[in-house]
């Protein structure tokens, strides 16, 4: 069985966050979605659980990070091509996200990033050859 990862992210406005990720081309899993949370399907093995601040707090005794003042998380996601990196950043910007850097070509890797409306950082990269263990 392939391992799966479920990233749990707190969001201020669930409807806005769902619309943002759908604008990137991702779909929602209705089985794990409701009034307080939504499951975004990134791939067969990667899912993002968007939870209202109240719902997120059910899983931790700590305060939700104020992403205007501190970095909560940086998530990196591989892409099939440079074009996919550029397309996802463009979709994120059009849907209300932002970026704090420019695309970077290091030869062995092409990368760029975006920040979603709740301040969660997403690094996107394409490597023509996968790194060997």
Description:
The protein has 133 residues and is an alpha/beta fold. The chain has a single domain, classed as 2,3-Dihydroxybiphenyl 1,2-Dioxygenase, domain 1 (Roll), CATH 3.10.180.10. It has helices at residues 14-23, 53-56, 82-94; strands at 5-11, 27-29, 37-41, 46-52, 74-78, 104-105, 110-115, 121-126.
CATH superfamily: 2,3-Dihydroxybiphenyl 1,2-Dioxygenase, domain 1
CATH topology: 2,3-Dihydroxybiphenyl 1,2-Dioxygenase, domain 1
- Unreliable runs: none
Known CATH architecture? Roll
Helix content: 10-25%
Q: Enumerate how many helices there are, as a single number.
A: 3
N-C termini distance: 20 Å
Mean pLDDT: 94
Structural class: alpha/beta
Main CATH class: Alpha Beta
β-strand number: 8
Count of spatially separate domains:
1
Shape: globular
* Rg over alpha carbons: 15 Å
Strands side by side in the biggest sheet: 1-4-3-2
Strand and helix map with partners:
Elements: E1 5-11, H1 14-23, E2 27-29, E3 37-41, E4 46-52, H2 53-56, E5 74-78, H3 82-94, E6 104-105, E7 110-115, E8 121-126
């Amino acid at each position: 069985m392939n391992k799966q990862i479920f990233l749990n992210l707190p969001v201020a406005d669930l409807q806005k966050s769902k619309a943002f990720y759908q604008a990137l081309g991702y779909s929602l899993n209705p089985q794990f979605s409701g009034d307080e949370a939504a499951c975004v399907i990134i791939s067969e093995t990667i899912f993002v659980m968007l939870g209202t601040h109240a719902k997120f707090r059910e899983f931790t005794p700590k305060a939700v990070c104020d992403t205007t003042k501190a970095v909560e998380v940086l998530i990196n996601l591989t892409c099939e091509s440079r074009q996919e990196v550029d397309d996802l950043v463009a979709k994120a910007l059009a849907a209300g996200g932002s970026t704090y850097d420019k695309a970077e070509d290091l030869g062995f890797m092409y990368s760029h990033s975006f920040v979603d409306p709740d301040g969660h950082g997403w690094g996107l990269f394409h490597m023509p050859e996968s790194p060997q263990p």
